[in-house]
Amino acid sequence: MSSVNLDMKSFQTIPKSVLPIICFRDGSLPLPDVSDTSLKALVGLSNGSFDGIQVLQNTEQCYPVPRNMTMRLTNEQISARVLYFGLFNGVGATRTQSKMIVRGHSYSFAANISVEGCVTSTMQGQYCNQTVEPLSCGLSGNRSGNGSVSGFFNQSIVSCRNNFETSCHGDGEMKVYSLEILRIAEFLTISALNVRLRPLNSTRNSSEIDLMCFARYGAMPSATLHDYSGNLNEAPLVVQSPKVGNWYISILALNLSKEIGGSQINVSKVCYSLELQELECPLGKAGPNCSSERYMLQTVLRKESTPFESYYLPYDEKVMSDAANFLLDPLLSNYSFGGGQDTWTYFLLEIPRGAAGGNLHIRLTSDRKINYEIYARNGGLPSLVNWDYYYINKSSNSHGSTFFVLYNSSEEKVDFYILYVREGIWNIALRHLNSTGGTSNGQTIMSISLERCPKRCSYHGDCRSALDASGLTSYSFCACDRNHGGFDCSVEIVSHQGHVLQSIALIASNAAAVLPAFWALRQKAFAEWVVYTASGISSGLYHACDVGTWCILSFGVLQFMDFWLSFLAVVSTFIYLTTIDEVFKRAIHTVVAILTALMAITKATRYMLLVAFVLI
C-alpha cells in the first residue's frame, strides 16, 4: 500500500526518470539503472495484483507502483532462497546525480509480508498436499582410466535410490523426489530401471509407456515449469554440471489407459526403480573426464575497508599471499584430453551471506594478446552451453545483459563487473584456446575481488554503504556529483564547458545584490545594507562551494548562511517599507531573525516551510 495516486493511463505518459517503480529479483538486490531489459517489460497492473511466475521468469522484473498491490508466490514458483524487492522513485542516470534542490514527488508506503510453509519437508506443493520422498545416497565406486597427465583419472560415483525398491503409480499420477547435491559434480544421471506394468498379465508392452521426468533446482517442478525434462522409458535424463544444493525430481506416467468400447479405461499401473548417479571429480580436478585443474580461492579481507570488501587468491604455494592478484600461467591446466583441444581451468570462490550488495570484479592483464575465454556461473561449473555470464572478446560477451558491465577491455586486458552478485559459490572458468599442453612466453595476471562500488564511482562521486530493511544485507551505491549520473557515475550529464559556464553564471548572478545594497546605502538604511551585502556575498560563496570551485567554510555553514540571509533580506525589505513605529520594527526584526534561522536550519527547501515563509 502506497501514497502513489496515479491511474493506469498515467503510467504510460510519465517519464521513467520520475515514475515510482517496484523491482523484484531472486537471490540478490535489483538495480534497474544498469540495463533497460527489465524496463522494456514495464507494464501496469490492471487489477493491483500479479502472478509470481511472470515476475520471476526474468532475473529482474519491474512494475509501476500502484496505490494497492498484492503478490502471492508459492513454493512451485520460487526457490528456497532470499527474494529481494526494491522501491525506486524513478530510474535513469539522473537518479544518482547530486542536486542543489531536489524537485519532485516523495511517496510513502507500507508493506506486510508473511511467509507460510509446510509442516514437514516431506510435504510440499502449493497446498502442502504433495508427498516428497527424499532419496538416500552413498558412494558406490570409482571410475579409472587413461587420459590424465599421470596416466589415469579417478571419478567418484554417488548413487541415490528411493527408499522403496520399486515405485508404482497410475496414469497421470505424479511422484516427487528430493536430492541434495553436496559437492561439485560433472553430471547427474536419472534412470528408471526395471520398468514394468501391473497387473503382470497386462496385454500392453511397457515400452509403450511414457515415463516423463521433470527436474528443477531449488523448487518444485511441474510439466510446465522445470529446468530439465525427458522420457526415462526411452533414455536416462542427464544434467550436465548440476548446481550444488537441493534438487526436486517429478515422475509422471502417461499413456497407461487404453480404449475399450469407445472410452479410455485405465487398466494398469507402471512400476520402476529410480536410480540417480552423480559423477564427482577428485579434489583439485574438474571438467570433462576430470582432466582440468580446479582451485578453491581463499578470501582475503581488505584492510580498512567497508564490510565484505575483499579479494580472492588460490591456496597455492605459487601465489604471493600479500598480493591482490596472482600469476595465472603456472595454474593453468596443461593437459588437453584427446590432444589439440582447448583446456579449461576452474576457480571457485564464495560470496558470503549478507554480501549480495557487492560487485564481483574480474580482471586479466597480459603483455601479449589474451587467449582466454571467461565463463562464470553461480552454484555449478560453467561450460560452453551452461553459464550465467561470459566474455570471449569485446564484441562477444554478456555486455548489455542485466548486471554485467564491461570496462576498457582490449586484446591485452579484460575488465568487467558482475553487479550485485548473488550469494553462494561462484565458479569462474578460463578456457585456454588452442592449447596443446604448453604455454607461450609472457605473463598473464588475474585479479578477482569483491568491491562495493564499481570503478570507485568513476571518480565522479562518493561510494556509500547501507543495510537493507532486514539489516542482514549490506549494499553500496554511488552518490554522483552535479555533472555525472548513472549507477557508476560514468554518464556525463553536464559537460565540462557547460559546467564552467553554469558555474560562472550562477556565481555571478549574486552580483544583483549590489542594487538593493546601493539603494539601502542611499537611504541610510544601514541595517538593511548590511543584510543585502552579506546575503549577496554568502550566496556567492555558497554556490561557489556547491559547484565545486572553492569552499571557504564547510558546505553546511555556507548553505545555512545563504538561506537564512535570503529569508531575512526579503522580510527586512517589507518591514522597512511599513509605517509602524521603530520600536515595533525592532521587535518584528528580532522575531523574524529567530524564525528564519529555524527555517534555514531545518530543510529550507521543503514545500511547507516555503508556504510558512510566504505567510510570514
Keywords:
616 residues; alpha+beta; 13-stranded mixed beta sheet; 6-stranded mixed beta sheet; 8 helices
Task: Give a verbal description of the structure.
The protein is an alpha+beta fold. Strands 20, 21, 22, 23, 24, 25, 26, 27, 28, 29, 30, 31 and 32 form a 13-stranded mixed β-sheet that branches. Strand 29 and strand 30 form a beta hairpin.
Summarize the amount of helix as a percent range.
Answer: 10-25%
Distance between the termini: 37 Å
Strand tally is 36
Beta-strand content bin: 35-45%
Q: Helical region count?
A: 8
Instruction: Give the radius of gyration.
Output: 33 Å
Low-confidence stretches: 43-58, 146-152, 435-439, 607-611
Shape: elongated
Mean of the pLDDT scores? Answer: 79
Oligomer: single chain
- Major sheet description: 13 strands, mixed
The structural class is alpha+beta
Concise overview:
By secondary structure, the chain is of the alpha+beta class.
Topology overview:
Blueprint: H1 8-13, E1 20-26, E2 49-51, H2 52-56, E3 60-64, E4 70-72, E5 83-89, E6 123-124, E7 130-134, E8 136-145, E9 153-161, E10 167-169, E11 174-181, E12 185-198, E13 210-217, E14 228-231, E15 237-240, E16 245-254, E17 257-260, E18 263-266, E19 269-280, E20 285-286, E21 292-301, E22 310-314, E23 326-327, E24 343-351, E25 359-366, E26 372-378, E27 389-393, E28 396-397, E29 404-406, E30 413-418, E31 424-432, E32 444-451, E33 461-467, E34 474-480, E35 484-485, E36 491-492, H3 496-508, H4 514-522, H5 526-546, H6 555-577, H7 582-601, H8 607-615
Parallel strand pairs: 2-4, 7-11, 21-24
Antiparallel strand pairs: 1-3, 1-5, 6-7, 8-9, 9-19, 10-19, 11-16, 12-15, 12-19, 13-14, 13-16, 17-18, 20-21, 21-22, 22-32, 23-32, 24-31, 25-30, 25-32, 26-27, 26-31, 27-28, 29-30, 33-34, 35-36
